[in-house]
């Protein structure tokens, strides 16, 4: 076999795998994105915001911020920020409040798409919805208590973003083109991730990473086969890490419990770099957006690992990690 053929076959295999992973994701994302757009067009998101107002007050936020979180829950972080910027002049927040709101959004957002991504790998949708909402509320509550009791970040939030009215006034055609560009971007990122993963595997960086992470991940209950993909989810995002997990679980190479713990951690703590920087643009502080979210997420999953040891396997199969379909 010539050197060109030696190079061509791995590249072709990577492109095919990226296409397969992207297709699995797109089957989930496209119907959900359309459904969310319909909800927005008929102004139905506001109905979810009303029950969230008392929750906002419990974590030290104005009740109106429930609309911001509701928008992020149903659609995505960017849509939530558009609503936030439209309310920010009438509802100025302290840096502490912006951090609490930002952390809650980072833990629970884009729920229709992200929950379906997780569900496709086996974990049950109901529990994943519950754990993300509960984790978001718990983190908001703890951060609010810490900031209030230690008199931290009580100055006004430094908002660096400005409203983008064009994002609100898109036609259906412009919206569809934007979503198509998003899907193409996702394919490109997954392709790059797969290529990098294969290179890192070849030069044994993944093996070194597994060795270094093994004690920490074992303590949390995540097996070494899922460790590299967990790191992808934590750093890059749930869609990318989740998409690769879907591919691996269908091959049967990762145990269902590892999938459950890995995806639960990814769900409540992902895109640590990009999303943290984004929420800092509305005045949030790294102490909550990054460190608070990372530490509390790890503690929640570590506690979940211990709790599930005492739960009957039949109950867990039915309500927690489920039984993923094999390809």
Short description:
The protein has 327 residues and is mainly α. Helix content is 74%, strand content 0%.
Which descriptors would you attach to this protein?
single chain, 327 residues, 0% strand, mainly alpha
Descriptive account of the structure:
The protein is an all-alpha fold. The protein contains 15 helices and no strands. The longest helix is centred in the N-terminal third of the chain and has 39 residues, at about 5-40. The two termini are about 30 Å apart. The model has no long low-confidence stretch (mean pLDDT about 85).
User: What's the rounded overall pLDDT mean?
Assistant: 83
Biggest β-sheet description: none
- Report the helical percentage: over 70%
Low-confidence stretches: none
Number of extended strands: 0
> Which structural category do the helix and sheet elements fall into?
mainly alpha
């Amino acid at each position: 076999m010539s050197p060109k053929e030696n190079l061509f076959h791995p590249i072709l295999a990577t492109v095919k795998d990226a296409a397969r992973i992207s297709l699995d994701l797109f089957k989930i994302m496209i119907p959900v994105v359309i459904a969310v757009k319909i909800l927005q067009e008929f102004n139905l998101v506001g109905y979810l915001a009303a029950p969230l107002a008392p929750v906002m007050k419990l974590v030290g936020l104005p009740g109106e911020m429930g609309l911001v979180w509701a928008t992020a829950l149903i659609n995505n972080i960017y849509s939530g920020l558009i609503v936030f910027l439209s309310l920010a002049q009438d509802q100025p927040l302290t840096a502490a409040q912006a951090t609490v709101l930002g952390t809650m959004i980072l833990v629970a957002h884009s729920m229709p798409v992200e929950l379906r991504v997780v569900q496709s790998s086996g974990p049950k949708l109901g529990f994943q919805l519950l754990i993300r909402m509960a984790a978001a509320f718990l983190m908001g509550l703890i951060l609010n208590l810490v900031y209030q009791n230690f008199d931290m970040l009580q100055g006004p939030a430094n908002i660096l973003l400005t409203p983008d009215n064009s994002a609100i006034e898109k036609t259906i055609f412009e919206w569809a083109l934007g979503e198509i560009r998003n899907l193409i971007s996702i394919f490109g990122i997954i392709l790059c991730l797969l290529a990098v993963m294969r290179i890192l595997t070849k030069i044994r960086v993944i093996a070194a990473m597994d060795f270094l992470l093994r004690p920490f991940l074992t303590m949390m209950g995540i097996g070494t086969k899922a460790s590299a993909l967990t790191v992808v989810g934590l750093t890059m995002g749930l869609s990318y890490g989740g998409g690769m997990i879907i591919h691996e679980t269908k091959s049967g190479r990762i145990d269902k419990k590892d999938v459950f713990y890995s995806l639960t951690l990814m769900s409540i703590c992902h895109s640590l770099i990009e999303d943290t920087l984004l929420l800092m643009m509305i005045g949030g502080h790294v102490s909550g957006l990054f460190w608070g979210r990372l530490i509390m997420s790890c503690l929640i999953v570590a506690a979940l690992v211990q709790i599930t040891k005492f739960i009957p396997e039949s109950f867990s199969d039915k309500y927690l990690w489920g039984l993923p379909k094999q390809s």
